[in-house]
Amino acid sequence: TELIYTGWCADHRLFKDNPKKQGDLNIVLDHSALQTFRIDATEMYVEQIKKVKKEHPKKAINLCRIRGGFEFFDFKTNKWTYDTSFRWWRSSHDDGWTNGDTCSIFQIAECLSSSHIFCVTHVESCGLTGIEALMAGCKIYIPSGKDSFKTWGSAAENIEPTTNYYEGPFLKQALLKPYMDYEIFNVSGGRHFFWRIKRDVNNYKLKYNRKMLVKNNSWQAAANTIYRELVHYEYMHKVRESGFGEDYKAYEAYWNNE
To answer: pTM for this structure?
Structure first.
């Protein structure tokens, strides 16, 4: 079996920036960490955004998180709500839908495409929503800190479960490229995030190269990679069958001299 690495990709036709956004700063938090013992930045984000909102009461700062649908933060009551009147985007996918039960990828695309910022909340394995947010025209904020995770043991093989540790950005740094708009900050204390959001609410600027994103991080790019690799696989199969092993240059030289 041969593996084909397709990269970190999102559908560029679905996730695309809406230049006419409603609100001064629309912020989306990812869902919380799925295990309670894992590090999670949700509470830190909310507290710092509340501070910025308090300093700028006239600014239209909107906040939601993806949690069984879209949960919106009401700055007046300091509570989360599924009341869709807080929604800052229009949706074409509300038929038969109840917020709080679930949401579709099309609804998430509408949300991200109408937002300014996406906040990574926990250490990601793949970080699919991260690349979708980047493709949708969001700046993404990535905390860096220390996390713990468990490797489960096996009673049959007499292997004890172990606790392992990871320290670094919540998204793999190898995935991040210069043409993406992201910032990595120290998760401790929250002040590192506070100053960034305070800057953004007064002077938000998106710095990304969508053409490069589509070229390298779209499903189209992934499909092209798969096609090239399959063509290469078939070609190398012919080389091996002809008795040249992996030496495709010798194979080509042989046929060029025929």
So the answer is: 0.83
